[in-house]
Amino acid sequence: MSSESTAGAASPLAGFTIAITAARRSDELAALLVRRGARVRSAAAIAMVPLADDTALRMVTDALIDEPPQLLIATTGIGFRGWIEAAEGWGQADALLAALAGARVISRGPKATGALRAAGLQEEWSPASESSAEVLAHLSDGDLDARRVAVQLHGAIEAWDPNPGFLSGLRERGAQVIGVPVYRWEQPADTGAFDELIGEIAAGGVDAVTFTSAPAVASMLLRASEIGVSDALLAALRGPVISYCVGPVTAAPLLAAGVDPVVPERMRLGALARLVSEDLPARRPELRVAGHRVGIRAAAVVVDGQVREVSGSGLVILRALAARPGDVVSRSDLLELLPVGGTDPHAVEVAVGRLRTALGAREIIGTVVKRGYRLAMD
């Protein structure tokens, strides 16, 4: 099962349930969100497959040592470090770095820059957007025509291309492109926890989902299709479940699927956590009801800052009343919404009674005799 963490009633994310799909640093992101009061559901969407023993990577490395590139483009920090570590395992690290030392070096972002400098290489330029498209726009035809260009490839999953048009754009402008396949992504070996998390998101059981890599997005969309919940997942991501992505590259597969995610200005975990804590409560404002502040979340209710555990039936009723604040909703309408259904109006009375008890403030839900129930709006 996917892991779950919670931190009482701390604001501003009190009562919110947030799904985490990260394979790396998931504990760090979870801690940042829990510290702000969130409940966290976590399951890795991807597993990284290192290629240190892969013959393709070894062959490419040997080829670049024999015939060094004139231009090196590093796309990710973990990928470039993995390449050097693999070369160390083969006893070829010094020869590889010597071959790369004579090349012009471009870094796609600060993490790749850090890995390059740690290896003793100095980048000449890095795009502010951290995008491959800006790298391609920066390079002139003179930089590329008949030039041998080594590109440390970004991890991909199945047939998904994380940087569509980048390699082909280099080739179209005359470059001899040598792709360096340092690592790739695949779905986790144990898909049970991942499937459970996908189902929970598709059912609207979480308030938000966070993504820290584009392969994780691609993996979730692919797996949802495989288990038959693709339509439900996309409907949830386009509706009640808010998607938060660490950067525009991560957001790209969601945008292609018709989902509009929220992205922080800075592509860092801390910035992502801050964005969630500021943006999500603004999208789910509290109601003023009978002198109380009531926040309705995906899996809980917050009353005056205190998280209240409410049953599934109670949440269904409360959402129906909140959809028409202050208006009367008939017993028959509420009965149709209850998970069990049926024709006995008494089921609604029982559910409302339990809901009032769970909220700790019975006056929040008013009874209109012979008609139904309403939120006692201030």
Properties at a glance:
378 residues; alpha/beta; 5-stranded mixed sheet; 4-stranded parallel sheet; 18 strands; elongated
Q: Regions with pLDDT < 50 over 5+ consecutive residues?
A: none
> Compute the gyration radius: what is it?
26 Å
Spatial order of the strands forming the largest sheet: 1-3-2-10-11
Largest sheet: 5 strands, mixed
Proportion in β-strands? 15-25%
- Topology, number of strands: 18
- Count of individual helical segments: 16
Residue share in helix: 40-55%
What is the molecular shape? elongated
- N- and C-termini, Cα separation: 42 Å
Global structural class: alpha/beta
Report the mean per-residue pLDDT as an integer: 90
Description:
With 378 residues, the protein is α/β, with parallel strands linked by helices. The protein is 42% helix and 18% strand. It contains 16 helices and 18 strands. The chain has helices spanning 26-34, 55-66, 77-89, 93-101, 110-118, 132-138, 141-144, 166-172, 192-202, 214-226, 230-237, 248-256, 269-283, 312-322, 331-337, 346-359; strands at residues 3-5, 17-20, 39-42, 47-50, 71-74, 104-107, 148-152, 176-180, 183-186, 208-211, 242-245, 287-289, 292-296, 301-303, 306-308, 329-330, 365-368, 372-375. The chain has a five-stranded mixed beta sheet, sandwiched between helices. Strands 6-5-7-8 form a four-stranded parallel beta sheet, sandwiched between helices. Strands 12-13-14-15 form a four-stranded antiparallel beta sheet, with helices on one face. A hairpin with a 2-residue loop joins strand 14 and strand 15 (306-308). Helix 1 (26-34) packs across helix 13, helix 2 packs across helix 4 and helix 3 (77-89) runs parallel beside helix 5. The model has no long low-confidence stretch (mean pLDDT 90).
